[in-house]
Write a structure and sequence with these properties.
heterodimer, A: about 400 residues, alpha/beta, 14 helices, globular, B: about 220 residues, alpha+beta, 8-stranded mixed sheet
């Protein structure tokens, strides 16, 4: 297989978009193409476009988004497909782009992820996301992702001693990181004391799905992110040395969460990470920076353990010690994570890798992890039933 | 002088209303927001605070701000019966304003809620303070409420589970009326309304300065 790299990155400001879905995707794509030095004129060289979106059809009444994007960008006759894999759609699209190049079928692939979610209310968005749950065993009973996360958190607390303060610590850290990320949705640092200790905390940071509070849950965001993938052998064509995709792993778990042997285990995360590390020839201790799918603060802790960054049950202890913040041993969610940067579903997996590329290029500004060489992203679909892990490496 | 007498005759009779005791709330940012009652002498300053928002179409700030502006004038000029205004400040800077009035001793009417600073649930806190005034200090049984923006609809009608009563007329016009009953207030108050009293003297003095905001997140590039 050919080696594959990332030659360009683009990212819209997450939050509330004032443009259509396709225009928003195009904005991210154009930034990535520009970053890769590709002009959208004849001979652009883009062989394939993958667009990741979970909700275009349901939320925006638009299907075949990839075809529309190719036309908007004037990238014909590039091949085009829309990829839907729940909240892991973004990383799945990157995986498909990787496969297209590694197989020799393509040389350059544009991967764009995006979601326009704020066209509906928060409740409607929550319901839309819940459509990925089992229709008879879960959705029909009113289960939602926050509800699952709440139950998962309670079990985790009982089993490993995680506290609400540990969760708040993760939230504050990620909001602090987001302050250095101009494309982050939330540009506000909550006070740890105010959201968890103050006597007004029950009102200004109320429970959403006990024990998870407002500041434990990601916002509903619009946004898009884009990558230009290329064959590493063509690296000299591009203005910046491509960051190599060193490993990709994916795994699935039971659709019905109740059918899992140990409900606090995220088996798909563990397997996806193991596969990615094996492919990359790296170990968890080689990772310098990680973007983990913190749709809920507990997930950052749990995923960090399943991915092997910390022993099981010790992710929250590492956060307490400050090991997961910029300047710590293994900074996590330097972009602000889903928690503060935002979580436009289809964009998230792509956005995580955009952040890692910026880190590995040394372009992350105030949130830069010095000397970062290997980055890890975990994009989590369903309640852990379809997970994609990507490892990127800087090659000298 | 005859003109003055005529003007006096236009003023509605005033009902003695107990004052809203000031309180302060710790916001998520750690900042302390003081909520206190504004008087007629404060209206010119509040008008200046509201005025820039009259042109902001996003999130229906325009209609809310324009109506609030008129209501503030109505209060200042004695053209509305039993109106009150509560203001939220952080370090003396105005971050939000709410108003309403007594219809009679049992029924209150909520007018408007404007959050100038965003992202800290200031509007939600000020709305709760307004309901607290009607229910716990004016001793009313219900408050008539309408919403002019989807944000307001979500925050009040849905989160407080307000009773729909479209047959009851609200002075803001043809928007469907919803009602906060005493029972609904008691149900939601513990999770919606907070704050501490008394406000430390120094904090209250700062609040009364009513400093105009220098920035409006709704108006990129605005500088006062």
């Amino acid at each position: 297989m050919r080696k594959v790299g990332i030659a360009g990155v683009g990212h819209t400001k997450f939050g509330r978009a004032e443009v259509s879905l396709v225009d928003m995707l195009a904005l991210a794509a154009l930034e990535a193409l520009d970053d890769a030095g590709i002009k959208t004129t004849e001979g652009h060289g883009v062989d394939q476009v993958f667009v990741a979106s979970m909700g275009a059809g349901l939320l925006n009444r638009q299907s075949s988004v990839a075809s529309a994007l190719v036309d908007t960008l004037n990238l014909q006759p590039a091949m085009a497909e829309t990829v839907e894999n729940g909240p892991a759609s973004g990383a799945s699209a990157v995986k498909l782009g990787y496969m297209a190049i590694a197989s020799g079928m393509c040389d350059v692939v544009l991967v764009v992820g995006g979601e326009l979610m704020r066209v509906v209310t928060g409740w409607e968005a929550t319901d839309f996301v819940a459509t990925m749950l089992h229709p008879d065993a879960e959705y029909a009973y009113g289960l939602t992702l926050p509800a699952f996360a709440g139950m998962f958190t309670r079990l985790y607390m009982d089993k490993y001693g995680v506290t609400e303060k540990d969760l708040a610590r993760v939230a504050v850290k990620n909001h602090e990181h987001a302050m250095h990320n101009p494309v982050a949705h939330i540009q506000l640092v909550p006070s740890f004391h105010a959201i968890i200790e103050d006597e007004d905390a029950h009102v200004i940071n109320p429970y959403v799905a006990e024990p998870l509070r407002v500041y434990d849950v990601c916002p509903v965001s619009d946004g898009a992110a884009a990558l230009v993938l290329c064959a590493m052998e063509l690296a000299d064509r591009f203005p910046k040395r491509p960051v190599r995709i060193a490993g990709i792993g994916q795994a699935t778990d039971t659709h019905v969460v109740a059918e899992r042997d140990v409900p606090t285990d995220l088996l798909a995360v563990r397997l996806a990470a193991q596969r990615a590390f094996a492919m990359a020839g790296l170990r968890p201790e080689d990772i310098d920076v990680a973007e983990l799918h913190d749709a809920f603060t507990i997930l950052e802790i749990a995923i960090s353990e399943e991915a092997g960054l910390f022993p099981r049950g010790e992710g929250h202890l590492a956060a307490r010690r400050g090991e997961t913040r910029v300047g710590g041993r293994i900074p996590i969610n330097t972009s602000g994570g889903l928690k503060a940067k935002g979580h436009p579903l289809g964009a998230t997996g792509v956005s995580q890798i955009v952040e890692l590329v910026r880190q590995l290029r040394g372009e992350a500004g105030g949130r830069q992890v010095e000397g970062a060489r290997h980055g890890l992203a975990v994009n989590f679909g369903g309640f852990g039933n379809n997970v994609v892990t990507t490892i990127v490496s800087r090659e000298e | 002088m005859i003109v003055d007498k005529l003007e006096q005759s236009l003023r509605p009779p005033e009902t003695a209303m107990p004052p809203y005791p000031p309180k302060y709330i710790t916001l998520a940012s750690g900042e302390k927001m003081v909520v206190h009652q504004a008087g007629r002498e404060d209206v010119p300053r509040l008008l200046e605070a509201i005025r820039p928002l009259i042109t902001v179409e996003k999130d229906f700030y325009d209609i809310v701000a324009a109506r609030f502006y008129a209501e503030l004038l109505g209060y200042q000029r004695y053209r509305v019966k039993d109106e009150y205004v509560l203001v939220g400040t952080i370090d003396g800077v105005i971050v939000g304003v709410v108003n309403g009035r007594m219809v009679d001793d049992k029924v209150g009417m909520s007018y408007h809620t404007v959050a100038i600073k965003r992202g800290l649930r200031i509007g939600a806190q000020l709305f709760a303070a307004k309901m607290e005034y009607h229910m716990d200090y004016l001793g009313q049984q219900e408050v008539l409420i309408v919403a002019e923006s989807p944000i307001g609809y979500r925050r009040w009608m849905i989160e407080y589970e307000l009773e729909s009563r479209p047959s009851t007329w609200h002075e803001l016009g043809g928007v469907p009326t919803h009602v906060l009953t005493k029972a609904l207030w008691e149900k939601h108050k513990p999770m919606k309304c907070t704050g501490r009293r008394p406000v430390p003297e120094e904090m209250l003095e700062a609040a009364k300065k009513l400093i105009l905001p220098s920035e409006y997140p709704q108006i990129p590039g605005f500088k006062r």
